[in-house]
Amino acid sequence: MNSTEKKPKGTRKGYTTGACSAAAARAAVQGLLAGNVPDSVECLLPNGQSVSFNVEEGAVEGESAHAVIEKDAGDDPDCTNHARLTADVSWIDQPDTVILQGGIGVGQITRPGLGVEVGGPAINPVPRKNIEDNIRLVAGEALKARGLKVTISVPGGEEMAKKTLNYRLGIIGGISILGTTGIVHPYSTAAFRASVVQGVEVAASQGQDTVVLTTGGRTEKFVMRELPELDESCFVQMGDFLTPALDAADRCGIKNIVIGGMVGKLTKMAQGETITHAGRNPVDVELVADIARSIGAPEEICRAIAEQETARYASECMAELSLEYEFHVELAKRVIATLESRYPGRFRIAVLVCDFDGNKLAEAGRNI
Q1: d(CA 217, CA 160)
Q2: Scanning 48, 149, 199, 337, which has the fewest C-beta atoms within 10 Å of its C-beta?
Q3: d(CA 87, CA 26)
Q4: What is d(CA 143, CA 182) in angstroms, rounded to the nearest whole number?
Q5: Beta bridge partners of residue 69, listed in sequence order
Q6: Across-strand partners of 251?
Q7: Mean pLDDT of successive 10-residue segments in the chain (368 residues)?
C-alpha cells in the first residue's frame, strides 16, 4: 500500500476485498494494454477517493493478463487480512462488454436475498460496479472494439470462509467480495455488521416472518435447541449489532423477533445501548440493582450489586438467594420493554436467557 506513515496502534485504516479486487483488475487491464503489469496502480474507490496499491505479482501472456493485490486490513481484525486478491483478464469478441466471474476462493451464491444472482459469484453490487468502473477508466477506447472477461479469485479463500458466517447466508466455497466505500475502518468490523444485515435480508427473502438474533455461538446453539421448528435461515448471529439487525428486520417486514443472550449483553439491551460491545458504555449497575429489588432481593444485596461493575455478579447473587429465575425473567421483560419503546408496534419480541454454559435460565414474551 502507499501509506508509510506510522499510525498509533488501532487507528490505521485498511482496504476492503472489493477495493483490492478493483485494483487488481485495473492493474491487469493496464498490463494487457501496455504489455507489462505495473508495479503499482491507482484505483478509484467507491467513495471517490483515489488510492495507490502495490502490485505483488503481474504477468502478461498473449491476450491475457494477471495481477495480484495483497489485502491490508489496517488495524481491523479480519480473516481476509493479507489475502491475495487476484484478477485474470482476457479479451473477448463482445465490444463494450465487461464480464465478471468468480474464481477459486470466491464464494458462490446459493440463496436469494443478497442482491446478487443465485448461482453467481459472491461479489457484492458496489464492488462489482467499482471493478467495472476502474476497468473502463483505463480501457475505455479499447472497449469500443472488444470486451473483457475478468475473473476474481482468492487463493485460500475457502479456508478463510470457514471463519465467517457465509454458509448461513447461502454462500459456499469461498469468501465474499465486499465493501461499500473501499475503506476498512479500524475495529469497525464492518464486514460482520454487513453479514448481520444480509442474514436478516436472506431470512426475509425466503418468506420467514421470524428472525432469531443471538450474541454468539453459545447463545445460538441454545436457541436452536429451544426453537427446533424454525428454519436455519431464521437464525442470525448479530454479535453486538442489535440495532442494525432490528433496523434491517423492520425494513424487511419481519414481525417476530427472538433474542437469545446472557446476562451482560441483555443488560446492555435493557439499558438502551444500540451497540452492546463490552468496550463501549459500562453496564448500568443501578438498573441491575433495581431489577433485583423489584423481585424482592434484600436491600443490602441490591446495594452490593450497585457497587459492582458487572451484571454477572448480580446473577450470581440471585442464584444464591434462589431468585435466579425471577431475576432473569424480569431482565428479559426489561429488554422487551426497551425495544418496544424504540420500535413501537413494529415487532412481537421474545427473549430467551441462558447461562455461560448455554443452559436455559428464563424467557419472556414467547408467544411466537
Answers
A1: 18
A2: 48
A3: 9
A4: 25
A5: 85
A6: none
A7: 48 89 98 97 95 97 97 82 97 97 96 81 94 96 96 97 81 91 69 84 93 89 94 90 94 96 91 60 83 94 86 89 95 95 95 91 82
Relative to beta strand 348-354, strand 256-261 is parallel
Query: Total structural domains in the chain?
Result: 2
Alpha-carbon 107 to chain mean position: 15
Distances from the Cα of 227 to the Cαs of 48, 90, 218, in angstroms?
46, 50, 14
CA proximity to 240, closest of 189, 168, 303, 310 = 189
Give the DSSP H or E segment for 102: strand 98-102
Report long-range pairs for 313-317 (Cβ below 8 Å, ≥24 apart).
Answer: 314/263, 314/285, 314/288, 314/289, 315/263, 315/355, 317/292
Residues 140, 228 within the same domain: no
Do 149 and 266 lie in one domain? The reply is: no
Q: Using the Cα atoms of residue 219, residue 79, residue 154 and residue 140 in order, give the sign of their dihedral.
A: positive
Of the candidates 245, 254, 258, the one whose C-alpha atom is nearest the C-alpha of residue 209 is 254
Residue 237 CA to residue 45 CA, distance in Å, equals 29
What domain range includes position 85? 14-184
Say how far residue 285 (Cα) sits from the centre of its chain: 30
117 burial (CB, 10 Å; 0-12 / 13-18 / 19+) is exposed
In a shared domain, residues 24 and 167: yes
CATH at residue 159: 3.30.2110.10
Q: Are residues 218 and 177 in the same domain?
A: no
Spatial separation of the C-alpha atoms in residues 235 and 229, rounded to whole Å:
12
d(CA 23, CA 150): 12
**Grid cell for residue 300:** 443490602
**Max alpha carbon distance in the chain (Å)?**
83
161, 216: one domain: no
pTM for this prediction? 0.64
Cross-strand bridge partners of residue 213: 236, 259
